[in-house]
Amino acid sequence: MAGDIAATKIVELSKKNRELTAETESEKTKVKQLNNKVKELEKEVRGSTADMAVLPEVKALQDKLSAANFKAMEHRNQLQATKQELKTTQKLLASEVGEDVNIHNLLATVGSWRGRAQQILVLQGKVSPRPGIFFSFALYTSPLDWLE
To answer: From the CA atom positions of the chain, what is the Rg in Å?
Structure first.
């Protein structure tokens, strides 16, 4: 069950990661377009200082540009945090199910798969009553009898 939850979490984080990457790329494109427009308008302002009506438009575009840059920075930070969370979840899942286990196969087998921790507990339950048998056997026989 824990493996299923972790695998589902990895799939969800991967989807979120793709969405954030696409959104970041979209914001980068907007920033480039706004940068180009600002450069064009600055050239126009330099070329014709008599036309002061362009100045408020440049200011508005610079404000939009700074807002887009800020939003792109936020998306980058969110993407980095999501990537880090995904790596942590993948490491956790790998420690639970093992390194060479296919996650998609785990998702296909709903509820029937047991993690390492569960298997260890079951095996410990089977082994724990046995030490008394070994010690009683060791008390009644000598090591030389074992060689025969």
So the answer is: 32
